[in-house]
Amino acid sequence: MNSAHPTPEEFRAEARDWLSGVARRRAPEGRRWGSGDDSVAVFENWTEDEERAHTERIRSWERTRYDQGWGALGWPEEYGGRELPASYEPLYRAEEAAFDVPRRTEIFPVTQQLVAPAIRVWGTGEQRLRWLRPMLRTDELACQLFSETEAGSDLAAVRTRAVRAEDGWVLRGHKVWTSGARVATWGVAVCRTDPDAPKHAGITVFLVRMDAPGVTIRPIRQMTGGSSFNEVYLDDVRVPDTDRLGPVGQGWRVTLTVLAAERLDSGTLGLDNADRALDLARNLGRPLTGGEQQQAGDLFVRTLVQRLIGLRVTAALVAGREPGAEASVGKLYATATMRATTDLVQQLLGPRLAADTEEWGTFAWTEHLLGAPGYSIAGGSDEIQRNILAERVLGLPKEPKYQQEEPR
Fold first, then answer.
1. Burial of 188: CB neighbours in 10 Å, binned 0-12, 13-18, 19+
2. What pLDDT does residue 265 have?
3. Cα–Cα distance measured from residue 290 to residue 232, given in angstroms and rounded to the nearest whole number
4. Which pLDDT score is estimated for 395?
5. Which residues contact residue 376 at a Cβ distance below 8 angstroms, ignoring those fewer than 6 apart?
6. 193-196: Cβ within 8 A, 24+ apart
């Protein structure tokens, strides 16, 4: 470690001290049971106005962090960072969790942890200068225009076309399952530029302004009643060549850079809701049955194991290694934790879960139950994660059906 870097203990103390001066500490046990917001939604159930208002609250906090040196921790100073090891980001998050600050929605990690690093790797000097600081500070937000209805999890099968024009490119196609499209400034679009090239060739990536003529955003209504996903239509959208990310025809490599980063953050999925389910067990108002005690104990152990998997991912990053297998294990384990959370809550609440009686911490769980299954697809389906492990860990031959991939 660079001698200029604080030790982990010093860093956590420094973070705790800074947070104490800018935010209010939560109750000793985290959220006070029975008061405040009882939402455990996996995918937000907001109107467009609510999404925009919450996005602005998060953006204000992210700007405060960035401006005071707590935003882009691992980035070079030229981008407003502190060049700290990757392991310091989860250390900061652990301290921040004890304070009452806005909870980040998906558009923020997508912008800061997926899109910005891809621009750093593949962008020109002008592009890095133009986009990185605004994205790290969240002045600009970016969504992923990846998935398509025909391609499913096989991102190499995209049909959205980008055709050369005198002043750049013309994009035409349809993207689906895009989180944050209504509040994003930019969309990272994976397009086919050479329909005659082999499947993984002939793909190019562009950054598309989401308010450009020809871009139409249509919310997708969820079974919970809200809409956090969208479909995006690109109808003859003109994009200058200066907004192309990476070489023409090399978009598959650019896409894999984004997808690799996407999985690194997936190991922490669902832990807040698992912790909330254990709080429910502690505050149920009746003794737990033997079976309920066993389920709660199993879920508690599972949360510890999932956090340990997250540390292994961080350790791989610190060692300068791409944590492909570790990240895939973390993603699989996280979706299993979500299922275990659902099972415990159903057992604890029974019929109280099914009726909206306005009792705190009961009917709100329906949004977890309805949303959790979606994460077996989001961020790389379970089948794809198992295929990665089969190839990279067990050395089994590649199965063409599950090429790397995908969603949002």
1. buried
2. 62
3. 49
4. 85
5. 335, 382
6. 193/161, 193/162, 193/163, 193/164, 193/169, 193/248, 193/249, 193/251, 194/249, 195/161
Concerning whether 262 is annotated as a catalytic residue, the answer is yes
Say what the pLDDT of residue 344 is.
97
Q: Annotated catalytic residue: which of 148, 262, 367, 405?
A: 262
Whether the CB-CB separation of 226 and 44 falls below 8 Å is answered with yes
Mean pLDDT of each 10-residue bin along the chain, 408 residues long: 76 96 76 77 84 95 97 94 87 88 90 93 95 97 91 75 94 94 97 89 96 96 81 97 96 82 67 92 94 96 89 68 75 92 96 91 92 79 82 76 44
Q: Rounded to 5 degrees, what are φ and ψ at 180?
A: 75, 10
- Facing residues of 145 across strands? 189
Residue 317: CB partners within 8 Å, gap ≥ 6? 86, 87, 264, 323
CB burial of 320-329 (b: ≥16 within 10 Å; e: otherwise) equals eeebbbbbbb
Q: How far apart are CA 3 and CA 284, in angstroms?
A: 50
pTM over 0.90: no
Answer positive or negative: Cα dihedral of 394, 398, 400, 402.
positive
